């Protein structure tokens, strides 16, 4: 079946440094790629998403890049802050009903 | 507008029992998705309902079922509970799946 691989599973970075999380998907027809952030004890929240007709999207310190040829997309967080500590999930849509296939999550730890 | 609500928030059941969880989506949202979340297992997609029809389904056994009512409220039922069903069950609503999903606070189910 279709799957999404997410790496790394845990990422520890120094405050102020950049963090990059990468996801690889299997369905070449996928066209919607959201990223969700889940802080400890809270519900997941969308932080950014991208569609297949766009190669990159930015929102302040967060950016997502999409490489359709290689079938991977990445989340980039610059100037990391303590509040960026959370689990990040990527997902890719499959099928005409946009069912989302989710990555396993990346725990991002920001070291002071 | 009011967010996604789920009831009950906590539930303790014993093996073999059945349970029904409820989710009220954001007004105007016709898509409701259900997820199972266990520590270290990420978000496991159960199913998605849109306008009272199940459109997408994850890889869970038939003991897990759901339905959606005409007002978009959704219920999830788990029959013949097993210890492994202990988890946080999240529902999320959206206008459609390729738009932002808004998650509820979850129902924490413990099976003894």
Labels describing this entry:
heterodimer, A: 112 residues, 5-stranded antiparallel sheet, globular, B: 112 residues, mainly beta, 7-stranded mixed sheet, 4-stranded antiparallel sheet
Structure commentary:
The complex is a heterodimer of chains A (112) and B (112). Chain A is mostly beta strands. In chain A, 0% of the residues lie in helices and 58% in strands. Chain A has no helices and eleven strands. Chain A has strands at 4-7, 10-14, 19-25, 32-38, 45-51, 56-59, 62-67, 72-77, 86-94, 99-102, 106-111. In chain A, the strands form two sheets. In chain A, strands 2, 4, 5, 9, 10 and 11 form a six-stranded mixed beta sheet that branches. Chain A has a five-stranded antiparallel beta sheet with strand order 1-3-8-7-6, with no helix packed on it. In chain A, a hairpin with a 6-residue loop joins strand 4 and strand 5 (45-51). Chain B is mainly β. Chain B is built from no helices and eleven strands. In chain B, the strands form two sheets. In chain B, strands 2, 4, 5, 6, 9, 10 and 11 form a seven-stranded mixed beta sheet that branches. In chain B, strands 1-3-8-7 form a four-stranded antiparallel beta sheet, with no helix packed on it. Chain B is globular, with a radius of gyration of 13 Å. The model of chain B has no long low-confidence stretch (mean pLDDT 95).
Task: Summarize the model shown.
Chain A has strands at 4-7, 10-14, 19-25, 32-38, 45-51, 56-59, 62-67, 72-77, 86-94, 99-102, 106-111. With 112 residues, chain A is mostly beta strands. The interface between A and B is medium-sized, with 23 and 22 residues.
């Amino acid at each position: 079946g279709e799957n999404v691989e997410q790496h790394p599973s845990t990422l520890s970075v120094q405050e102020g440094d950049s963090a990059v999380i990468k996801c690889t998907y299997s369905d070449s027809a996928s066209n919607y790629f959201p990223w969700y952030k889940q802080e400890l004890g809270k519900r997941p929240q969308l932080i950014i998403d991208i569609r297949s007709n766009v190669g990159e999207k930015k929102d302040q310190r967060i950016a997502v890049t999409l490489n359709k040829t290689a079938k991977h997309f990445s989340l980039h967080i610059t100037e990391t802050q303590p509040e960026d500590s959370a689990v990040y999930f990527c997902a890719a849509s499959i099928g005409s009903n946009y069912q989302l296939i989710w990555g396993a999550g990346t725990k991002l730890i920001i070291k002071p | 507008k009011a967010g996604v609500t789920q009831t009950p928030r906590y539930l303790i059941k014993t093996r073999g029992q059945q349970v029904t969880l409820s989710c009220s989506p954001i007004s105007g949202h016709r898509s409701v998705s259900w997820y199972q979340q266990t520590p270290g297992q990420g978000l496991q997609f159960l199913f998605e309902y849109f306008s009272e029809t199940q459109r997408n389904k994850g890889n869970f056994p038939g003991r897990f079922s759901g339905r959606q009512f005409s007002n978009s409220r959704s219920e999830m039922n788990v029959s013949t509970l097993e210890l492994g069903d202990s988890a946080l069950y999240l529902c999320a609503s959206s206008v459609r799946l390729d738009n932002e999903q808004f998650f509820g606070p979850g129902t924490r189910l413990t099976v003894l």
